[in-house]
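1st attempt posting a full record on here, be nice pls
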Amino acid sequence: MSFSGFGFLFGFLPVALAGFWAASRFGPMAGTAWLLLCSLAFYGWADPVLAVGLAVSIEVHLAFGRAISATEAHPRRQTAILAAGILLNLASIGLARLLPAPPPGISFIAFTQIGYLLDQRGAPAGGRLSDALLIGFFPHLLAGPILRGWDVAGQFGAVRRGGSGLAIGSLYLLIGLLKKTLLADPLGSVVAAGFGDAGGLTLAAAWQAALAWSFQLYFDFSGYSDMAVGLGRLFGVRLPHNFDSPYKARSVIEYWQRWHITLTRFLMSTIHTPLTLAIMRRRRASGLAVDRAAQRGPAGFGAMILAPIAITMVLAGVWHGWRAPFLVFGLLHAGFLVLNHAWRLWRGGAPAGGRPTDVALTYLCVLVGAVVFRAPDLGTAGGVLAGMAGLHGLGPALPDARTLLDVVWLAGLAAIIWLLPNSREIMEGQGGWLRWRPSPGWAVAAGCAATLGVLSMGGTNEFVYFQF
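the predicted structure (as tokens):
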């Protein structure tokens, strides 16, 4: 079920919200139980077998979590149980990738479950309903944010009286809907046409296809992230923000701190940081230095910087699927990040300001990676990139009216991305003249936007990240 579909917005959501407020009158546990039932219904909307599978998976991981908590005095046994739980999730991702139609959001569910198991070490057992909802809460179920226990501690089932939560949640939901239906989806035809004729793309057409895809991906995932935050607020839960204007980043390192923030956090905490610490401990045991000076040397840089980044990003690439473009995408970003770290080591830290050249160079790197990510095969990716380099010709000297209209549309989207505040800044009072405040003007604007959003919902596509 898509957040931007009629069935969800005008069927499922009103019932879920009304039931939650009614159930919560009997206490937080009743509200939590209702949300868990709604989450199972949401996941199994198209196929009830999926709901059964999610319920079984949650129950299995609750059992794993209790076993991990109970074996605190036996570290080896606890580690073995934890390892078994992690391997179970990794195997589920691998097996799902082999299916013609893998369960939606399988990897996000698996990552949340791995995080849950990791958090059980040294922690008292939590409430079964709250732990179950941590994994299955429907706003984050299909594409994040990837939750850890501290993200939502004590929030489930607690109705916060007053209209601010409903107003803020509804506006986040509306902004996300508009991004998806008005800004992202209309670009799909341009992207499909461009990548479908990669070998024949001239310079202008290749750049149009690449920019359209990067903007479609941006507004699609940004829209989903806003809707997830808004849905959480409607149910009294402050989900972590998962998207923070990544195309404004002035380095590739900063880009990954702004794009799919909780996925980056998960990869850093479970792969990159443990691997780096293990390498450093081994170097110390061998009498080798691990300071900044050592990292500038070829051996130290290769061991402490290059290797952890390469392993992490290759795994991040193939996490999306077994296709070669995903592997190359991971390798590309590994290379970008390694160069970024090398620059910081030898030339000093990032500049204090956000120079346009830094932002432009970062976006160019991201754009190349996005082309590879979108392509069905490496031949298509090479064709689009070759067209962007002008190897297929420059194209007509005078573009037709349709092309000019497309250029104006892309320029407008670029202005939104790079010149306007993002949703979080608008809603949290940091958006300058565009900051939200409860006022008649905002109420009228929201009403008009809601009407526009509903009118644009027909034929809405699934969110891009639902496939992962």
